[in-house]
Design a protein that fits this description.
binds zinc ion, 270 residues, 11 helices, single chain, six-stranded parallel beta sheet, three-stranded parallel beta sheet, alpha/beta, TIM Barrel
């Protein structure tokens, strides 16, 4: 939590603990570690964004369990390419064209509101691809209670299912923000939570799609879930324009592209 956020609590509620770490003698300087927490504001026992329970009534939580996945441990060279925040008219068609040209399956974590608005962009174009839920309007689910998070995700779920003809089974919360309430809502919807192990680093390669692709190709490991975006600032085009190089480079290293669900089925193959 940033200091600016601390100010909002309005009281001198922060306890600071400073510990002098050993090792100063070796380095010739004293190393200082500091941890900070809020002492006088309890998180809600039930009902707030952090709680994964709704209280003492019986809870409807679907199958009753939810898994969170960052990537998969496998001895085989599989990689799952994922695109968040679409669909939007600017670049989603270009990404779909590139994937079709190279016969690469990918997983699209869609924004429900945009899936409804731009259904024509993805209708009949997602064969071989997978869709996941990325919330209704990219609001921060980690700031919602379980009811609000559920309502947001269910609305998005229905819009994505209607736009694509496929009911998503995967959820990626915006920014990877994850509170207990998101887990609760995900369980109710029988979602599997999918984060990522590696993401595009467009900012490090301005106007250099080839350099960016080379970097990603070098960093992918077996079982990587790779995060990209088919929506965003112009800067993101570095990754999208370099997609052909990325695909051919990874294939040259022996990688096969799969959807996230196909990758998850490989989880036991180590
Ligand atoms: Zn996003």
């Amino acid at each position: 939590m940033a200091d600016g956020d601390m100010g909002r609590w309005g009281r001198r509620a922060v306890l600071r603990r400073t510990a002098l770490l050993a090792g100063g003698a070796v380095l010739g300087v004293a190393a200082t570690a500091q941890s900070t927490w809020i002492a006088d504001r309890r998180l809600a026992l039930a009902g707030g964004p952090s709680s994964a329970t709704l209280g003492n009534r019986h809870q409807q939580v679907g199958a009753g369990a939810v898994e969170v996945t960052w990537g998969v441990q496998t001895g085989e060279r599989f990689v799952a390419l994922t695109f968040d925040d679409g669909p939007r008219p600017h670049w989603t068609p270009m990404v779909l064209d590139t994937l079709a040209r190279y016969a690469v399956p990918a997983t699209f974590f869609l924004i429900g509101e945009q899936a409804r608005q731009h259904a024509a962009l993805v209708r009949d174009r997602l064969g071989g691809h997978e869709v996941g839920n990325h919330s209704w309007a990219h609001h921060d689910l980690a700031r919602m209670n379980a009811h609000a998070a559920y309502d947001d995700l269910k609305r998005s779920h229905d819009a994505i299912a209607e736009a694509t003809g496929v009911a998503p089974r995967l959820l990626r919360p915006p920014w990877g923000h994850l509170g207990g309430a998101v887990l609760h809502a995900a369980a109710r919807l029988d979602y599997r939570l999918v984060l990522w192990t590696l993401q595009m680093v467009e900012r490090e390669f301005p106007h250099d799609p080839t350099g960016h692709a080379r970097r990603i190709v070098a960093d992918v490991q077996p079982g990587t879930i790779l995060l990209g975006h088919d929506v965003g600032t112009e800067q993101r085009l570095v990754a999208l324009r370099g997609l052909p190089d990325m695909i051919t480079g990874l294939r040259a290293r022996g990688y096969t592209f799969v959807t996230v669900s196909q990758l998850l089925r490989r989880a036991a193959v180590v």
